[in-house]
Write a structure and sequence with these properties.
The protein has helices at about 45-50, 75-80, 100, 120-135, 150-160, 180-195, 205-210, 235-245, and strands at about 5-15, 20-30, 35-40, 60-65, 70, 85, 110, 115-120, 165-170, 200, 215-220, 225-230. The chain is an alpha/beta fold and about 250 residues long. The strands form three sheets. A six-stranded mixed sheet has the order 6-9-10-3-11-12, sandwiched between helices. It has a four-stranded antiparallel sheet with strand order 2-1-4-5, covered by helices on one side. A two-stranded antiparallel ribbon has the order 7-8. A hairpin with a 6-residue loop joins β7 (about 110) and β8 (about 115-120).
Length: about 250
């Protein structure tokens, strides 16, 4: 029986008019695997995230989930396949509470149609459980606009936990938060891995990537230049691959 990966990116390319953002990129992700996606600005990381998460269609190549070819026309299509994203800007509604953000678009309701109403207490209680899992000081009733960067990150990560995602793409989750909060986010990634959730960690922070990732994929100028187990490379080699001092590995 042939092995089937959770996610397979096969020969994917993406062009925007005359601009070539990605060329012939292939890699796969297994259940419970944490893969670091690294590269300099303009390397194609953000484009790859948007392809996997349903914001863009590939110009060529194919994306498979559980062996099935997928053509994501919108993020909801990717979410239906168990793919969630925590974007760098977190995409939170500042004027809503933490609990309202966690359940935004997935609100819990009670009662019998047509008299169904929002089950606010159930959403507050579940949000509190999720923040407890994250060991976060975030409180469900707090307004997001009054939160620190670390608390906002916890809200965005709790939202992915709500859906029991199979794959979570995390875009620079440890940027602009405190050392203690960085440790909490890395612990969360380890807990997701232990539950069989795969994570693609997009990060410039070499210590974070080497702390939690099983392997590292490096993009440079839209092409893949490395895909190596973390224990078979080094920060110096990855830095060389990112900058071009080392052509490929």
């Amino acid at each position: 029986m042939n092995h089937v990966s959770l996610l397979e990116v096969q020969g994917v390319g993406k062009s925007f008019g005359a601009i070539r953002a990605l060329s012939d990129v292939s890699f796969s992700i297994e259940p419970g695997e944490v893969a670091g996606l690294m590269g300099d600005n303009g390397a194609g990381k953000s484009t790859m995230v948007k392809l996997i998460s349903g914001n863009f269609l590939p110009t060529e190549g194919e994306i498979r989930v559980d062996g099935k070819p997928c053509h994501f026309h919108k993020p909801l299509d990717a979410r239906a396949e168990g793919i969630e994203v925590v974007y760098q800007d977190l995409a939170l509604a500042d004027n809503l509470t933490a609990a309202q953000n966690v359940f935004l678009g997935r609100e819990l309701k009670k009662g019998v149609w047509p008299f169904r109403i929002l089950d606010k207490q159930a959403m507050i209680d579940r949000s509190a459980e999720l923040f407890g899992e994250l060991k976060s000081e975030t409180r469900p009733r707090d307004l997001v606009k009054k939160m620190s960067g670390g608390q906002r990150q916890a809200v965005a990560i709790a939202r992915t936990r709500l859906s029991n995602a199979k794959l979570v793409l995390m875009d620079e989750p440890t940027a602009a938060i405190s050392v203690r909060q960085v440790a909490e986010v890395l612990d969360l990634i380890r807990r997701m891995k232990a539950r069989g959730v795969a994570v693609i960690l997009i990060s410039h922070r070499m210590p974070d990537v080497f702390a939690v990732c099983d392997r590292i994929v490096v993009l440079r100028r839209g092409t893949k230049v490395a895909d190596k187990p973390t224990d078979q490379t080094s920060p110096e080699e990855i830095t060389g691959l990112i900058t071009g001092a080392i052509r490929a590995a």
